[in-house]
Amino acid sequence: MSTDAAPDTQPARQPKQRGDRTDSSIKRLPNGKGWRARPTLGTDPVTGKQVRPTKVFRTKGEAAQWVTEQRQQWASATWAPKSIQTFDEVADHWLNLREADPSIGPNTVRADRESLAYARRAFGAVAVQKLTPAALADWSATLTGKGGKALAPATKRRAIIRLKSVMAHAKRMRWLTYDPSAELESPEQKSVTATDADDI
């Protein structure tokens, strides 16, 4: 009579996927009146530190949903931290990079500054994360020069294009989750001179 033990038919234990867990990222507040979510998303490529955004919610379900959204945004490279960068600060950063680029002439950078003056007067002190598509569309529709004078189509077009350049730069720097100026249209320009082309 054989004494061999029967083979173990229990399925192998699968390792837990760290990215799928949320319990370790969500904890009840000490006073019991809410839940703190603090997921570890990854490593900041600039600082080398872990990225761990924190937010408090009324229910655990709301916290879990936010954690999932944060991880999805990080995985798709659309995540941005809460930022207080103003439009003026982003514009200055963009202009500084333009000045440092040897392929861009000083006349072009000077034209950039002039074209950005319209947007900076309107919302230079506003945090870029607070700018909305509606606010930018309203600004574009009512864009005028000093004293309420109408702008030439080419001037208005360059002002809008420069605004879009700064907002796109903010997204590249991860100061924005999405670009609210992406769908903003600029006036069509029937003809572009060589000088205008350098500015555009």
TrEMBL record:
Region described as Disordered: 1-50, 179-200
InterPro entries linked to this entry: CB, DNA_brk_join_enz, Integrase_recombinase_N
Keywords on record: DNA-binding
Biased composition regions of type Basic and acidic residues, renumbered to the chain: 17-26
The protein's name in its UniProt record: Site-specific recombinase XerD
Organism annotation: Mycolicibacterium gilvum
Record-level Gene Ontology MF annotations: DNA binding
SUPFAM superfamilies: DNA breaking-rejoining enzymes (SSF56349)
Tree of life domain: Bacteria
Domain Core-binding (CB): 85-171
